[in-house]
């Protein structure tokens, strides 16, 4: 079992912007989902965990090893797919993996070859191994990105919005690949897709403005909203009046009718009860008054 313990972590960029504020998380094997809107601090948190950003305060301990005191342990056991993996040079997929494998310190030639061929097979790129990476489609690039992250059998894999821009079929394939891997390692995944977290992750956190606002098991977080989510079709001009009276967590236009979804401990009059979903957890968390 691997463990990542983050305690009181804060990060301030050089321009003075505080992107992470006092984050504490305990993460074990399996898939951990990081949800949050644009600018929430997901990438900043990931970059800090992998050692690309130095925290202002707090600690990151991986398998009992303090990462700031011994950065090599994290580096040796890490696979990282950044949000902007912009390296698509004019070399073949195989050669680029060979290059990265060498950088990761896989020195034994035969071992390198076995790993690369296995990984290419795993991500469905075997037949394209002699193609240059810059000619790959978005989905192929992402899968290549996963292959490079998996070189060296990492114990912790961090993928930053890996399915952004993938078509539904590629996304499913990608998700099931991550899911297979996550049985024996830590996989931390950031995304905007609530559905992916629901389907894949055993633990999750919701971030906004640099803070973790909610964390736990997706099913348990959903269960806490039982009998508290309500919906109603309203006339558009009445929206402000409803906003004054209710805690509206989302609004949606369906075939020209405006539906509002509200959070209420008591059943509000004329509303329909709604079975809570993880998306309600997400909107409820983000619309809570501080
Ligand atoms: N190098 C940097 N210097 C200064 N501020 C930065 C830097 N990188 C990010 N930020 C700021 O930190 C905040 C968090 O950014 P971050 O990229 O971590 O968010 P995110 O949750 O990953 O967003 P997205 O979903 O759009 O990827 C934002 O306000 C962003 O503008
Ligand atoms: Mg990001």
Automatic annotation (TrEMBL):
Keyword annotations of the record: ATP-binding, Nucleotide-binding, Transport
Q: Does the keyword Transport apply?
A: yes
> Which SMART domains does this one have?
AAA (SM00382)
What terms describe the molecular function in GO for this protein?
A: ATP binding
Q: Which family does it belong to?
A: Belongs to the ABC transporter superfamily.
Q: Which residues form the ABC transporter domain?
A: 4-234
Task: Report what the protein is called.
Answer: ABC transporter ATP-binding protein
Q: Does the keyword Zinc-finger apply?
A: no
């Amino acid at each position: 079992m691997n463990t990542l313990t983050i305690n009181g972590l804060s990060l301030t960029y050089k321009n003075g912007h505080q992107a992470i504020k006092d984050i504490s998380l305990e993460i074990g094997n399996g898939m951990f989902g990081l949800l949050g809107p644009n600018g929430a601090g997901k990438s900043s948190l990931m970059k800090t965990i992998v050692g690309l950003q130095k925290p202002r305060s707090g600690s990151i301990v991986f398998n009992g090893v303090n990462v700031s005191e011994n950065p090599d342990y994290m580096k040796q056991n890490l696979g990282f797919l950044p949000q902007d993996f912009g390296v698509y040079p004019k070399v073949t997929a195989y050669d680029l993996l060979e290059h990265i494998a060498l950088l990761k310190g896989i020195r034994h030639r035969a071992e390198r070859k076995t790993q690369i061929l296995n990984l290419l097979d795993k991500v469905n790129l075997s037949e394209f191994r002699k193609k240059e990476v810059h000619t790959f489609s978005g989905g192929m690039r992402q899968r290549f990105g996963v292959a490079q992250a998996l070189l060296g059998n990492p114990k912790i894999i961090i993928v930053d919005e890996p399915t952004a821009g993938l078509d539904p079929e590629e996304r499913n394939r990608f998700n099931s690949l991550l899911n297979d891997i996550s049985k024996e390692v830590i996989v931390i995944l950031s995304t905007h897709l609530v559905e992916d977290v629901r389907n894949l992750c055993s633990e999750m956190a919701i971030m906004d403005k640099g803070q973790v606002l909610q964390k736990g098991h997706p099913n348990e977080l959903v269960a806490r909203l039982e009998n508290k989510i309500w919906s109603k079709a309203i006339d558009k001009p009445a929206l402000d009046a409803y906003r004054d009276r209710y805690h509206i967590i989302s609004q949606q236009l369906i075939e020209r009718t405006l539906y509002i979804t509200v959070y209420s401990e008591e059943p509000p009059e004329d509303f329909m009860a709604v079975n809570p979903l993880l998306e309600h957890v997400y909107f409820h968390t983000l619309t809570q008054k501080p």
